[in-house]
Amino acid sequence: MEVVNTETVPGQDVEETLGIARGNTVKARNVGRDITQSIRNITGGELKAYSELLTEARDEALERMIEDAESLDADAVVNVRLESSEIANGGSEVIAYGTAVRLR
User: Fold this and answer.
1) Structure confidence by residue, pLDDT tens digits, 42-89
2) Rounded Cα–Cα distance for residues 25 and 32 (Å)
3) What is the rounded CA–CA span in Å between residue 53 and residue 51?
4) Could you please report the per-residue DSSP string of the chain?
5) Is 2-103 CATH 3.40.50.300?
6) Residue extents of the structural domains in the chain
7) Around Cβ 76, how many Cβ atoms within 10 Å?
8) How far, rounded to the nearest angstrom, does the alpha carbon of residue 97 sit from its chain's CA centroid?
9) Over the stretch 5-21, which tens digit does the pLDDT of each residue have?
């Protein structure tokens, strides 16, 4: 499965557009991480636990988008975008979406 953030897959022609493929996940922080990250926030530096949490969420959202595209019998997903938002106090959603296509 080709996944690109451009309108086309380089060197390939789009034969058919199948619709939007999407995948999302919602991840919540935990109390242990909040305590350690609060200390890090005071002293400065990267909040690695949160970076890892969001990396995991992005990967999961992308994988779910690919599964959705495969269910549409797509060869690729073009114009892929990622967005995140806070859902609830301590919870964040990451969504991946793009256009599922068949290639020639």
Assistant:
1) 666 666 777 888 899 999 999 999 999 999 999 999 999 999 988 777
2) 21
3) 5
4) -EE-SSSS-TT--EEEEEEEEEEEEEEE--HHHHHHHHHHHHH-S--HHHHHHHHHHHHHHHHHHHHHHHHTT-SEEEEEEEEEEEEETTEEEEEEEEEEEEE-
5) no
6) 2-103
7) 22
8) 8
9) 999 999 999 999 999 99
